[in-house]
Amino acid sequence: MSQKNDPFPNKEHKGQEFEKADMSGAHFNGVDMSNATFWAVLENAKFNESNLKKCVFDDVNLAESVYENVNLSGAKYHNINLSNSSFRYLNLSNAEIDDANLEGMKINGVLVTDLFKSWNKNR
């Protein structure tokens, strides 16, 4: 895409706030959005080689979004729809998930609900 037609010609958007924005289907390739805050619709968004460190996602629709090689360290998610989303090359060290609907969620092809059933049975 030429710079003339590129809505985000600057690849740095550190600390920006995206409020009530419909960014459905947006592609974020190599973008630094660290410390940004989102109150937006990002359904079917694609994040690739991007920095989302310490971002805040509050009341955001991220359904069917795709994340590949993305830095989400320190990011905060509250009231988020991640249904049918895909994560690859993911580091979840020290991540916490509370009050989540895990139905149909898989990690490395294994249903998380099955993992919990097995864990509860064997503890």
TrEMBL record:
Alphabetized Pfam families for the sequence: Pentapeptide
Bias type Basic and acidic residues, positions: 9-20
InterPro entries in the record: 5peptide_repeat
Entry keyword set: Repeat
Region of interest (Disordered), ranges: 1-20
Entry keyword annotation includes Repeat: yes
Domain of life: Bacteria
Protein name, entry field: Pentapeptide repeat-containing protein
Protein species of origin: Marinomonas phaeophyticola
Top-level taxonomy: Bacteria, Pseudomonadati, Pseudomonadota, Gammaproteobacteria, Oceanospirillales
